[in-house]
Amino acid sequence: MCVLVINSGSSSLKYKLYDMKNNNILATGLVERIGCNGSSNYVFTHDGHGKLNLEQSIDNHKEALKLVLDTLQDASYGAIDSLSDIYAVGHRVLHGKESYANSVVVTEQVIDTLKGFIELGPLHMPANIMGIEACKELMPDVVQVAVFDTAFHQTIPEKAFLYAIPYELYQEHGIRKYGFHGTSHRYLSHKVAELLKQPLEQLRIITLHLGNGCSMAAVKNGVCIDTTMGLTPLEGLIMGTRSGDLDPAVIRFLAEKLDMSIIEIDDMLNKQSGLLGISGISSDMRDIHSAVDADDKRAKLAYEVFIYRIRKYLGAFWVAMGGVDAIVFAGGIGENDKLVRRDVCSDLKWLGLEIDDEKNNGCNRKEKSISKDSSKVRVMVIPTDEELVIAQDALRLAKREYAVR
Prior knowledge:
39% of the residues lie in helices and 20% in strands. With 405 residues, the protein is α/β, with parallel strands linked by helices. It folds into 2 domains: 2-148, ATPase, nucleotide binding domain (Nucleotidyltransferase, domain 5, 2-Layer Sandwich); 182-386, 2-Layer Sandwich (Nucleotidyltransferase, domain 5), CATH 3.30.420.40. It has an 8-stranded mixed sheet. The two termini are 18 Å apart.
């Protein structure tokens, strides 16, 4: 029984095909530069069959998806015999606002509702919707399921998600903290409970999803009570190119002093800030480390600010939950960067956290505890698997939908 997971970006389409009997990945692929001038790039991998690399003009997401489906059925490279082998399709969707606290089967009404959320995610939401519509057109009889980045955070209490602005702006326009990377934080918190062999409902967990985009979540007794990202993925931690937390008055200052438009400021805060903005070198932490080793002062400053912001939120979430049982690192940086893990966890013995340097240094992209045996707080590295969560939700809801049909 196969489930196809789709992640549609503004000019890209990523996917994984799962065999849900054993959760094995049958095939993965990425189409880039959709609708851009020149050729699009398509990389397809089927375990045991090597890689297929193509360059051709692809004008829209429907054409990209058709190429994907054709490849999946290809006699030489394909992973399935026909489209009838695909039981359901799960779609990663950026924003569910307050309408969706759980994954849902996609209907025309759901699509209409999602279109109303475009203003909260103008870069991601149109692409998410295009991916869904393309799948519905090319696979009309297959159940489509939307899985929302914001859903896991809908348990956050009002005191934590409200901004201190006129309350009517929340009532009338939905301006509040929503949080993102929810599928990752959900997977990580459940995985921690599984690995510790303790009930999730009895654990206090801080999950760190650190990559080009970074966020943290406080998960108490199985539910999220706070997270770092806000109305959009811009709030919170410093990221590769995003500023994270910022005094709102900076926006007016830039508009008046530098005559920048709101669009220009927004572009700067999302694409030219963060590690890139401070260092002036790169948004990639690996490049930052290299520059620090070469004694570049701005790179060192970027790194220090990055670590400080994480530790500040670590303390805030620690207090909010009344203690911590486990801290989890995930994402490209969290899973691979021993220096970041070391510096985030340094000098916290007074809080009952002691990291084991040998375990930390030998841990890369593996599920592993990196805290000392004597540490009261477990520190773990767990490769996240958002796509598997999406596939599992799609399978569960599809079974229910087909039973109704």
